[in-house]
Amino acid sequence: MDLHALVSLFDSTLHPEPEVRQAAEQQLQSLESQDGFLAILLQMIIAADIPIGTKQSVSIYFKNRIRRSWSGTQRALEQYAPINEADRTVTKENILLAIYSSPQAIKMQLTECLGVALKYDFPEQWPQLLGQVKEFLHAPDAQK
Q1: Is the dihedral of CA 23, 29, 30, 36 positive or negative?
Q2: Is the alpha carbon torsion for 53, 56, 58, 60 positive or negative?
Q3: H/E element holding 111?
Q4: Stretch 20-34: mean pLDDT, rounded?
Q5: What is the pLDDT of residue 144?
Q6: What is the pTM of this model?
Q7: Is the peptide bond between 123 and the residue preceding it cis, with omega within 30 degrees of 0?
Q8: Whole-angstrom Cα distance, residue 60 to residue 136?
């Protein structure tokens, strides 16, 4: 997946013309089942050179994808593409950094994602979470 093409797609989801928005949303839905999709979305959220409006669009899409499919229940799998294990791992490894480094509007979206992952994966499938939290609490600028 090309990062620049994805930025353009997410920018199109903010377009004032409904046809442009709908076409972009359909393209994104066709891409979301590809391996690495969530990882690229997190990369976009963390990247310094992507406009805040685009990041907000990405974070909302990311949140909706996590809410719809993270549970892996039969009902979720019947309606939506599953989230593969590699994307789950990348998400769990990077969600705290993304929350930590994002503006408030994006933090709100990502915090909801964190809650979903915690509900379904902690502690059995996410034993390293407490170590990750400890790292952030001991970071030099953690008081900000």
Answers
A1: positive
A2: negative
A3: helix 104-121
A4: 96
A5: 52
A6: 0.93
A7: yes
A8: 24
Concatenate the DSSP letters of all residues of 7-66 into one string.
Answer: HHHHHHTT-SSHHHHHHHHHHHHHHTTSTTHHHHHHHHHH-TTS-HHHHHHHHHHHHHHH
Q: Give the separation between CA 33 and CA 49, rounded to whole angstroms.
A: 26
C-beta separation of 62 from 107 below 8 A: no
Ramachandran area for residue 36 (φ above 0: left; ψ -120 to 50: alpha; else beta): left
**Whose structure tokens read 């909801």?**
112
pLDDT tens digits for range 35-44: 999 999 999 9
Question: Considering just the CA atoms, what is the radius of gyration of the chain in Å?
Answer: 15
CA distances from 34 to 20, 58, 83, 87, 89 (A): 22, 16, 9, 10, 15
Strand, helix or coil for residue 89:
helix
Which helix H or strand E contains 93, and what residues bound it? helix 85-101
Which pLDDT tens digit goes with each residue over 58-90? Answer: 999 999 999 999 998 888 888 899 999 999 999
Answer whether residue 92 shows pLDDT above 70.
yes
Contact 69, 115 (CB under 8 A): no
